[in-house]
User: What shape does this take?
Amino acid sequence: MSGKKLFYLSSLVILPAMYLVFYVVRLSTRGQGLERSLKWEGLLLLATLILLERIYTYRSSVSQRSLLTRDIIANVVNKYVTGAVTAAVLLPILLLLPEHFFGRKFIFAAHEQLGPFWFQVITIAVSVSFFRYWVHRLQHSVGFLWELHSYHHRVTDLQALNTDVSNPIDFALRNVVIFLVLGVIGFDPLAILITLPATGVSASISHWGADVKGGFLNYFFVTPEVHRWHHTANVPKGHRYSVNYGVEFSFWDILFGTFHLPQENGQVVPPERIGHPGGLPDEPNYLKLLLAPLGLYRPITRVLGMPAT
Assistant: This one.
């Protein structure tokens, strides 16, 4: 077998292998405490994806070196700060609602009321993916939500390091709020923690800038081949805002008619160019990404005596 053919075959195998390995890794760290898990497990996935991007180089990759500072800041903020801040702000409010209406802390007083453990895991996975699909779709069609989300679409290439390049409010709406709501409903915390890996790993791998093939997985998971079409600079005909809104699973797009993955001679055809559909350039200034959608960038930079570029 030639080296070229072997390399191609490995590009078919590496994607399911990554899903499996890192699901097991994330699952195994849940009993070790959140703090310890955050210290190495998320970074291990990111480092592995970055390394393999160098091996399975995507032929249309665009250098992102000039954006390294922004990408690092965005990763730190959204991986380790956004969730905690969102919980601190929203959780007291969410806990007041069942206490006011039901006279107790959670909507369902006992985890068992929501069904067997295995059923809760499946319910959480389906609920999270359904919620994230529709929130993501709204982030493309509602003006203010698009203002927050559009910075994520100004990247000119999908790479592991820019997965979390997103305004924290935008990130929280899509990735944090649903888990807080499920906790308040009364789902078993262990069931939520078991389900987290499936959603987190798939979402991270979708932004992977490696030339790997999804094959049949394209129709279940949001693989890099599927997600590149979501980030195309030219929205496919017949779709108003974008395509492939699923965050982890692609079957919602198939069900609701937003799935797009053209093929030619049995091979997936990639988009011509990745970028903002309105032609806006990538934004290297993290402070602008953070404050501009809220109308605070110019006032704050003026107060600080900084140039509002």
